[in-house]
Q: What sequence folds into this?
């Protein structure tokens, strides 16, 4: 069975971005838990989490927890914020020197999640690379996702809408399922 490690970004005293009535630590947890629950219900997959409540976990510990879990894929869930309210949409990140397998997984995953945002006239901000701690310190394929800009009113309104959140969670579920060729539960 495929094992996934989901890391809802921030938590505890570290709220991450906050704007328009949303805190990043809360929305990242909601998306990660929803995605994990649906994956376990619909596919032959096991999901392990860095956190399932509003607790703070150091970045280095998140990567170590993922390594110790022997996960096949690591996803860190986030939402963006910026000083300008214009940026919007979805983007994801890999480490600066990803393996070919990591790139292949991210490419399939990205298409599913980005399409949810573009369907709602939000930008596909692309596939990027960054030297983030959780990407650099994990040993399995690892992706960091940025679901919308909390500082953009339209993105924030979408993230407050349960219908959109269910659609976004479905995009994450289908992205993981396609990227890892998961088998459906019977």
A:
């Amino acid at each position: 069975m495929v094992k996934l490690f989901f890391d809802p970004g921030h938590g505890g005293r570290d709220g991450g971005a906050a704007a328009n009535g949303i805190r990043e630590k809360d929305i990242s947890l909601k998306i990660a838990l929803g995605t994990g629950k649906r994956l376990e219900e619909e596919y032959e997959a096991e999901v392990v989490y860095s956190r399932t409540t509003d607790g703070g976990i150091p970045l280095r510990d998140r990567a170590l927890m993922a390594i110790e879990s022997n996960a096949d894929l690591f996803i860190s869930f986030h939402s963006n914020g910026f000083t300008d309210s214009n940026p919007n949409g979805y983007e994801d990140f890999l480490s600066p020197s990803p393996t070919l397998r990591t790139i292949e997984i991210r490419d399939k995953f990205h298409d599913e999640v980005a399409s949810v945002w573009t369907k709602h006239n939000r930008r596909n901000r692309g596939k990027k690379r960054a030297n983030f701690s959780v990407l650099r310190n994990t040993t399995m394929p690892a992706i960091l996702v940025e679901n919308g800009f909390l500082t953009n009113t339209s993105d924030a309104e979408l993230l407050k809408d349960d219908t959109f959140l269910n659609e976004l969670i479905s995009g994450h579920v289908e992205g993981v399922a396609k990227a890892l060729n998961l088998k459906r539960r019977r």
User: Anything to note?
Assistant: The chain is about 45% helix and 25% strand. The chain has a mean pLDDT of 97. The longest strand covers residues 73-80.
